[in-house]
Amino acid sequence: MEQNIELLLDNCIDEIRKGKSIDECLADYPQYEDVLKPLLQLAVQIENLPQPNPSSEALSSALINLGKEMERNTAAAEISEAIVPSQRDVLPQKGFAASMKKRKTFSFFSEGSFRNVFRKSKLAWALSTFLFFAVVLSAVTVSANSVPGDILYPLKLATEKVKFFLTFDSYGKAELRLNFSDKRLNELVEVLQQSKTLDTSLLKDMLDEAKLALEENEIPVEKASILTAKLNHVNAYQKTVLENIRPEVQATDRKIVDDAINVCDMRSRWMRRMMNEEYQEQYDEQDTTPQSQTPNRKRHQPKRMQWGEGCDWMR
Amino acid sequence: MKSKAKDLTDEELHQIVEKAKAKDNRALGRLCEHFYSKIYRFIYYRVNSIEDAEDLTSEVCLRVVKSLPEQKGLFYAWIFRIASNMITDYYRRRAVRSNVTSTGDLIEEMVDEKRTTGELLEQQELRQAIKHLTEEQQQVIVLKFIEGYDTDEVADLVGKSAGAVRAIQFRALTVLRNMYVRKDGKS
Fold first, then answer.
1. How many angstroms separate the CA of residue A185 from the nearest CA in chain B?
2. B71-94 pLDDT, tens digit each
3. What share of chain A has pLDDT > 70, as a percent?
4. Does A46 touch chain B (CB under 8 A)?
5. Do A95 and B130 touch (CB under 8 A)?
6. Is A289 helix (H, G, I), strand (E, B) or coil?
């Protein structure tokens, strides 16, 4: 019964909405008229209540708050992502923005807000870039003292390759090779002290870098003698260091150290001869060139080294 | 009887909601404009003053913006549920449920609607009577008779079956009628 009345009431409300009067609806259910009629009258009365509408100021105020919230969200997203802001999100939009222009207090789509967001993201971008380079520089600095087996050692080698790649003159490249050769020797000593083992690959790299330094072409003649002198000095130093560490090397590896010392020795002799020949050539040239003539600049053409026997392991 | 004013089709509303979820600010603004009046009326019958209704409606808009990415299911139901929770919080904060409508609100309506004091008092009495209903009765009466939804739509919005909504509607109208009968001294 109750269920039926609830359904009948609902059906009558639907019928009234479609245009029927209360009496027309109740004509089919005279037995329920006493119960349903006052309820339907009340329903009609409620439906006819004037709709309370919010003031335009309240709506504007809500939209202003909404705009500020969206602005905060956009700025936060921009900063967290640290990317240049997508103009799609912050540029003024046609429909809604146009309606907002009438409400002068609304600031979300204003030019100032856009600039503010853009400025924040530029700052975030600059900060991120600075942090990135700071981290990279720190890693590169720390990696300078690394040895094979350390996490940062590959970074050290990569940094050397980049340096070499970014050096364009032959003399600079030759100097870098000498520097790398020196580093390999230091690493070799460090590894030997730490693990009491001879890292033959480091020894090979040390000798190779020194050899490649001398093989650099296109070195101006006035710098060739300087390079030869430096190489001679490095060679002599490496020979001395190798002689000093020899007793610490395991007996099985001493033959290798001896071979390397021999190579250094041969190179030293070869370079001394080179320096003497160059000196002699310069002396002869000065002697035969007329005073008024400027001597032609010659390019350094190194003579091929002859590696001593017993150094096959290094090739 | 008036019918529900539907200025957006379901498809249009769906598109706007999807755009708003994708952080399209224009769509978010349009969504807020569209729902502001509906939410305001829904809240108006359940709080004590116009100012409170406006403040709560603004808070609902902000909550919608913040929670939109997590929104699932029927959008109408979701937004009315947010409003309903805000009203609950409002009463929890106040810990008091006043029945008195401010004189200021009444005068404001007289100026706005250009109606007589007698009419207004009668309408105010009816509104006050609605505010005496239980929370679920208020929801059903406002959605059905103020917002103009049909029974099935109200059922979706409040998360109940159509039968349950019909029962609540019947009880709510009966309670209101009894209030009037008692007031008129007929019982």
1. 60
2. 888 888 898 889 988 888 888 777
3. 71
4. yes
5. no
6. coil
Q: Does B29 touch chain A (CB under 8 A)?
A: yes
**Which residues of chain A are within 8 Å of residue B50 when distances are taken between CB atoms?**
52, 55
Indicate the pLDDT class of residue A119, thresholds 50, 70 and 90. low
Name which of B61, B127, B169 is nearest A10 (Cβ-Cβ).
Answer: B169
* pLDDT score at B7: 67
pLDDT tier for residue B116 given thresholds of 50, 70 and 90: low
**Does the CB of B180 have a partner CB in chain A at under 8 Å?**
yes
Q: Which of B45, B34, B44 is nearest to A59 (CA)?
A: B34
With an 8 Å Cβ cutoff, is A31 touching chain B? no
Q: Nearest by CB to A43, from B37, B66, B173: name it.
A: B173
Is the Cβ–Cβ distance between A241 and A203 less than 8 Å?
no
Q: Is the pLDDT of residue B170 over 90?
A: yes
pLDDT in tens, A203-220: 988 888 888 887 777 777
Domains and CATH numbers, chain B: 1-98 (1.10.1740.10), 132-187 (1.10.10.10)
User: Residues 46..65 of B with a Cβ closer than 8 Å to A: which?
Assistant: 50, 53-54, 57-58, 61-62, 65
Query: Tokens at residue A307, please?
Result: 């590696």
Q: Pick from A2, A14, A69: which is nearest to B62 by CB?
A: A69
CA distance A173 to A70: 56
Show which of residues 242-271 on chain A sit within 8 Å of chain B, judged by CB atoms.
none
CB within 8 Å: A43 and B145: yes
Q: Where are the beta strands (DSSP E) in chain A?
A: 219-220, 299-300
In chain A, where the domains are located: 2-46, 78-142, 152-314
Pick the residue from chain A with its C-alpha nearest to B50. A54
Looking at CA atoms only, how far is residue A47 from chain B in angstroms? 5
Tokens 């020979």 found at: A239
Q: What span, in angstroms and rounded, lies between the C-alpha atoms of B153 and B155?
A: 5
Candidates A43, A223, A220; CA nearest to B172 is A43
CA torsion A188-A193-A199-A205 (nearest 10°) is: 0
Distances (CA, A) of A235 to A207, A240, A271: 9, 9, 10
Using a CB-CB cut-off of 8 Å, the residues of chain A touching B109 are 50, 52
Q: Which residue has the higher pLDDT, A115 or A215?
A: A215
Listed in sequence order, the residues at least 6 apart from A314 whose beta carbon sits closer than 8 Å to its beta carbon are A203, A204, A207, A208, A259, A260, A263, A307
Q: By the 8 A CB rule, do A268 and A236 touch?
A: yes
User: What is the rounded CA–CA span in Å between residue B152 and residue A14?
Assistant: 12
pLDDT of residue A79: 63
